[in-house]
Specification:
Elements lengths: L1 E3 L1 H8 L6 E10 L2 E7 L3 E5 L6 H15 L4 H4 L18 E10 L5 E10 L3 E9 L2 E7 L7 E7 L6 E7 L4 H8 L5 H18 L1 E4 L3 H4 L3 E2 L12 H9 L3 H14 L6 E6 L4 E9 L2 E4 L5 H14 L20 E5 L8 H16 L3 E7 L12 E4 L3
Parallel strand pairs: 4-17, 4-18, 11-16, 16-17
Antiparallel strand pairs: 1-18, 2-3, 2-5, 5-6, 6-7, 7-8, 8-9, 9-10, 12-14, 13-14, 14-15
């Protein structure tokens, strides 16, 4: 594995105001063993089919869902995360290990999780560290109990506090409910855990499906789904909410779609659905259903990059001001169906948005030759 554009990765190593994941670790996860993915504000993961691009994004999303409080069985409904070469131990146990590092106001905070997938799905070990100190450590002591033994840093009259935590939830996400914050040590634990959870929760995973975007979308809450099925409905909503940002969307679509584009609009059809349109000028309007797959994916991804948590179907941290949050977009097949011109236009847009600090992007691409050397873009190549 190689990483290009070291200056982009170095940018992520400064201490930002908004927490963000700067490294993803797959110690043993599906096709990956002992792999580290350095992540900058805009990272493209490339490699041939079967090299594990989608797997890496799936691991990132899994950590995000665990950070949001989801249960283990909900996040990992099947055992495909276990490496094929993993051999069961004497108790017939097999599993996988994943982790990440988040940088933010508290400095780098590291999380590592060991999951037993067989014979029962459970978290058997978790470690949260910062500043060279273990802040939380859990271990499975009694296989007959549905809990793990946890120890978190206290720094008061006793060095650590011990207690049970459920084995189907991420302990780091539960710490704010268990730690009182009475000592400096406990406050350090809470600050590190909250930084980790905030970075993990602020994730939007998407893979636009042109087939589903072609049909009129039912009127709903107006939050863009991961497959962008309801693209027309979200266009209808966002057009009236922020004219300035919508003008940027129209300009981006004009740069990436064929033919003239005077406007991007949507109209209700009277049956509870909305259809999207490209205004070509001179009264000509093209329904989105007539666009090519690449144009539809380009339009959807441009909308994702130009909007925010209030528009995307994402788990917002409502207790934290948006000015302190950074949304990470996970885009599987980022360049799928796009020509080189469209891909470059989309990445240029992503660079501009990432430079503002409120958004990060991790995209899986089949070929990154068109992106190498672009300022602000780091490339992780799984071919080596």
């Amino acid at each position: 594995m190689t990483v290009s554009s070291p200056e982009a990765v170095a940018t992520a190593r400064t201490r930002p105001d908004r927490p963000g994941i700067t490294e993803l670790r797959l110690a043993a996860f599906a096709v990956h063993r002992r792999v580290r993915f350095p992540l900058g504000p805009l990272t493209l993961v490339t490699g041939p089919s079967g090299s594990g691009k989608t797997v890496a994004l799936r691991a990132y999303e899994a950590l995000a869902r665990l950070g949001g409080g989801a249960g283990l069985a909900e996040v990992f409904p099947d055992p495909t995360c276990v490496p094929e070469t993993a051999r069961p131990d004497a108790q017939r146990r097999r599993g996988f290990r994943i982790g990440c590092t988040v940088d933010g106001p508290e400095g780098p905070v590291r999380l590592d999780v060991a999951v037993q997938a067989e014979p029962e799905l459970r978290i058997v070990g978790e470690r949260l560290t910062a500043g060279g100190r273990i802040l939380l450590e859990t271990a499975l002591r009694d296989p007959g109990r549905r809990s793990v033994q946890a120890a978190w840093h206290t720094g008061g009259s006793s060095a650590v506090t011990r207690g049970p935590l459920p084995d189907d939830r991420l302990g780091t996400a539960l710490l704010p409910l268990r730690v009182a914050g009475r000592t400096d040590g406990e406050r350090q634990v809470l600050a590190a855990a909250e930084q980790m959870v905030l970075a993990l929760r602020s994730v939007y995973a998407c893979s636009p499906s042109p087939r589903r975007m072609r049909a009129p979308a039912p009127v709903g809450p107006g939050r863009l789904l991961g497959g962008c099925d309801n693209l027309a409905e979200v266009l209808w909503r966002t057009r009236s909410e922020c004219a300035h940002r919508y003008a940027h969307l129209v300009a981006a679509v004009r740069a990436g779609c064929s033919g003239p584009v005077a406007d991007v609009s949507a109209e209700p059809l009277g049956d509870g659905t909305v259809r999207g349109l490209l205004d070509r000028g001179d009264g000509v309007r093209t329904p989105l259903g007539l666009l090519g797959d690449g144009e539809l994916r380009y339009l959807a991804l441009a909308l994702v990059l130009l909007t925010g948590p209030g528009v995307l179907e994402v788990d917002q941290a409502g207790e934290v001001p948006q000015a302190l949050q950074s949304l990470t977009v996970l885009a599987d097949g980022f360049d799928h169906c796009l020509d080189a011109r469209q891909a470059q236009e989309l990445v240029r847009l992503a660079v501009r948005m990432c430079e503002r600090g409120h958004i990060r992007l991790v995209g899986a691409v089949s070929d990154a030759s068109w992106a190498r050397g672009l300022p602000g873009v780091s490339v992780v190549d799984l071919r080596s």
